[in-house]
Amino acid sequence: xxxxxxxxxxxxxxxxxxxxxxxxxxxxxxxxxxxxxxxxxxxxxxxxxxxxxxxxxxxxxxxxxxxxxxxxxxxxxxxxxxxxxxxxxxxxxxxxxxxxxxxxxxxxxxxxxxxxxxxxxxxxxxxxxxxxxxxxxxxxxxxxxxxxxxxxxxxxxxxxxxxxxxxxxxxxxxxxxxxxxxxxxxxxxxxxxxxxxx
Length: 198
Fold this sequence. Notes:
The chain crosses the membrane at residues 6-23. It comes from Azonexus hydrophilus. The chain is α+β, with helices and mostly antiparallel strands. The protein is 55% helix and 13% strand.
């Protein structure tokens, strides 16, 4: 073989090597390789079944996918959209812990309200500068003294932080105008609570 032919063969090999490297790097797998991997998975499942000494009638079944977890239930989602509609210039945060609200006021407040750890409110409404306007809770009406007491404890804790608590009922969700009026009242209450704190 002469030098020209040898250099052409080497160049072709180098180009093929580069193309193969790029192809593998891009993550694409050839069809034959995919079929092989499926076949391997099937045989691997059979080997695993034999290793566990299972009855031939027993076989592994792929578990169904779990339902995707949602942060808000249907009523909370509806109220969230109404809050955003009623107050487009304000920020609405969901599932906020009372301890986090206390921490926003300082470490002393957080330590004082440490018993509220694990308790939260459904929504917190903030001004454009992220100062807290009100906390909003979505709660079914109850006849139980224990539930009412827990809500009162939460209300007192939030009031001590200067945060008014608004409670809406899922079976009587307010419209955007009613929410706007409630928030305006909450701003007035917050200002009064802030004045009492100082």
